[in-house]
């Protein structure tokens, strides 16, 4: 079985899923970062399909880039410019080629947290 990568973004300031947040996924290698996927969160704050599906899943170092500033502006949470949080990069490693990696983001205008979910 081949693994896959999913994500989920929750707006902790509003207590809702973060709909419409743009995400980029990069594979980090010896030559730098390679953009391998783009997605936008749906009404549930998730992408419609795994951001890194089984066919493209490989071990290695990755970076999810959450374009939080655009989302915060669109949702009316941008009190002043420049925003405290604009682009949120999360770099992580995938070591188990058969596992499901879930990397959620809990977001507010002034903070965020993440963890390896299930």
Automatic annotation (TrEMBL):
SUPFAM superfamilies: Transthyretin (synonym: prealbumin). InterPro entries: Hydroxyisourate_hydrolase, Thyroxine_BS, Transthyretin/HIU_hydrolase_d, Transthyretin/HIU_hydrolase_sf, Transthyretin_CS. The keyword Disulfide bond does not apply. The keyword DNA-binding does not apply. Its EC number is 3.5.2.17. GO terms for molecular function: hydroxyisourate hydrolase activity. Residues 5-117 form the Transthyretin/hydroxyisourate hydrolase domain. Keywords: Hydrolase, Purine metabolism. PROSITE patterns: TRANSTHYRETIN_1, TRANSTHYRETIN_2. Belongs to the transthyretin family. 5-hydroxyisourate hydrolase subfamily. Homotetramer. This is 5-hydroxyisourate hydrolase. The gene is uraH.
